[in-house]
């Protein structure tokens, strides 16, 4: 009951307001707050005399808010870093970004954070109230910037980090989506041919009064199987994909199994390895640059590498580093990092420039991922064309083979 009451007490609603500023000019806008009275008090503190404040009506159908995406957070990070570097006050920066955003969900999120900051909450604490959008890594970096008095510099590093990590994610999605989409299209086209087209040929063949070639017989039998059990085939395929997605979401062991398979998969595996190393190096470099202690930083790094296998390895490395082992030695013991990465880490430790060295490692592997994905696209195009040609061409040949044979007998 107490938790429910506390949640209700901190609930933020969206309000539309109209009033006059210090110059007597009419102004209006949108903000968030817990009540009309608190919104009016907040507007007066900003030098606005509110004439009308009312709760924003909800859309008749659905929330109409859209969704806050990771790309939105990356763009917000860059906008906030730019405004802070330009000397714009934090509250005003949130107001400008929030009011001007095209996505209502992002606007509501940012205006809610702005209201918390106006109430005296630190930025890191205000962000921590929204863990789905701002993870521990983001909040820890902001907190470190607040404590060191270099928030604008840290926000710039966060913006670079978010931009780089989102670019890596986009590349990985591209590498996985393209072949998957083609396989799905090939399966659907083949199923349509087997269910609707092949039966028409089968009726034609039944009047030949002769045995069908082995290839044709196989295709006809496959067509009959699809016609009878199409619901089980499509249901099994959709159910299998759903089961995999749910298993990945709910079971850590299953997620680890999938990540292991992806790391060892041909063609895609090397890309996943390079992407994990790039995320590891970029995250740890950003944490080091913010002055976060190594052991504390590695806990956040483990959750940011995007792969359970590498995440567990980073946690083991953290324990070894906490007991006095050098980072490069701990990395080498995992057998997951190439020798170049280990050696550059060792040089960074000796020279006291870990953030710089790790940033160079991240730049190198991000470029490697870019090149690998581009090469993969070029490599897959002829392979996919050949695959589709074999599948569709094989079905066509199987259907016309009896006609060719009959033509040969007649001649």
Automatic annotation (TrEMBL):
Subcellular location: Cell inner membrane
Gene Ontology BP terms: protein secretion by the type II secretion system
UniProt membrane topology term: Multi-pass membrane protein
Sequence intervals crossing the membrane: 176-198, 229-245, 383-403
Chain residue ranges for the region called Disordered: 1-31
InterPro entries: GspF/PilC, T2SS_GspF/T4SS_PilC_CS, T2SS_GspF_dom, T2SS_GspF_sf
Entry keyword annotation includes Phosphoprotein: no
Family: Belongs to the GSP F family.
Protein name: Type II secretion system protein F (GspF)
Lineage, uppermost ranks: Bacteria, Pseudomonadati, Pseudomonadota, Gammaproteobacteria, Thiohalomonadales
């Amino acid at each position: 009951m107490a938790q429910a009451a506390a949640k209700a007490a901190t609930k933020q609603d969206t309000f539309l307001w109209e009033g006059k500023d210090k110059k007597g000019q009419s102004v209006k806008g949108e903000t968030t707050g817990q009540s009309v009275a608190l919104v009016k008090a907040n507007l007066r503190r900003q030098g606005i005399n509110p004439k009308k404040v009312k709760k924003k009506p909800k859309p008749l159908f659905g929330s109409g808010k859209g969704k806050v995406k990771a790309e939105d957070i990356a763009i917000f990070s860059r906008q906030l870093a730019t405004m802070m570097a330009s000397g714009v006050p934090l509250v005003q920066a949130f107001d400008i970004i929030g009011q001007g955003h095209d996505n209502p969900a992002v606007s509501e999120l940012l205006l809610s954070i702005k209201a918390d900051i106006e109430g005296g909450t630190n930025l890191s604490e205000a962000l921590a109230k929204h863990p789905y959008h701002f993870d521990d890594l983001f909040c820890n970096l902001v907190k470190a910037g607040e404590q060191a008095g270099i928030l604008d510099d840290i926000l710039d590093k966060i913006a670079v980090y978010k931009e780089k990590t989102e670019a890596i994610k986009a590349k990985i999605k591209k590498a996985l989506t393209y072949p998957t989409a083609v396989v799905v299209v090939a399966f659907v086209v083949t199923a349509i041919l087997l269910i609707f087209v092949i039966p028409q040929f089968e009726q034609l063949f039944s009047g030949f009064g002769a045995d069908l070639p082995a290839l044709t017989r196989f295709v006809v039998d496959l067509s009959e199987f699809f016609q009878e059990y199409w619901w089980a085939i499509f249901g099994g395929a959709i159910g299998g994909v759903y089961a995999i997605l749910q298993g990945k979401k709910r079971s850590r062991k299953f997620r680890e199994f999938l990540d292991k398979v992806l790391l060892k998969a041909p063609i895609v595996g090397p890309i996943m390895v390079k992407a994990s190393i790039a995320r590891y190096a970029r995250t740890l470099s950003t944490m080091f640059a913010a002055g976060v202690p190594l052991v504390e930083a590695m806990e956040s790094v483990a959750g940011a590498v995007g792969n359970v296998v590498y995440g567990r390895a980073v946690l083991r490395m953290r324990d070894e580093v906490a007991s006095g082992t050098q980072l490069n030695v701990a990395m080498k013991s995992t057998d997951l990092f190439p020798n170049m990465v280990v050696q550059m880490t060792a040089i960074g430790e000796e020279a006291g420039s870990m953030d710089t060295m790790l940033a160079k490692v991240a730049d190198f592997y991000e470029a490697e991922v870019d090149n690998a994905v581009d090469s993969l696209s070029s490599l897959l195009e002829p392979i996919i064309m050949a695959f589709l040609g074999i599948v569709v061409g094989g079905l066509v040949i199987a259907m016309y083979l009896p006609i060719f044979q009959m033509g040969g007998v007649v001649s």
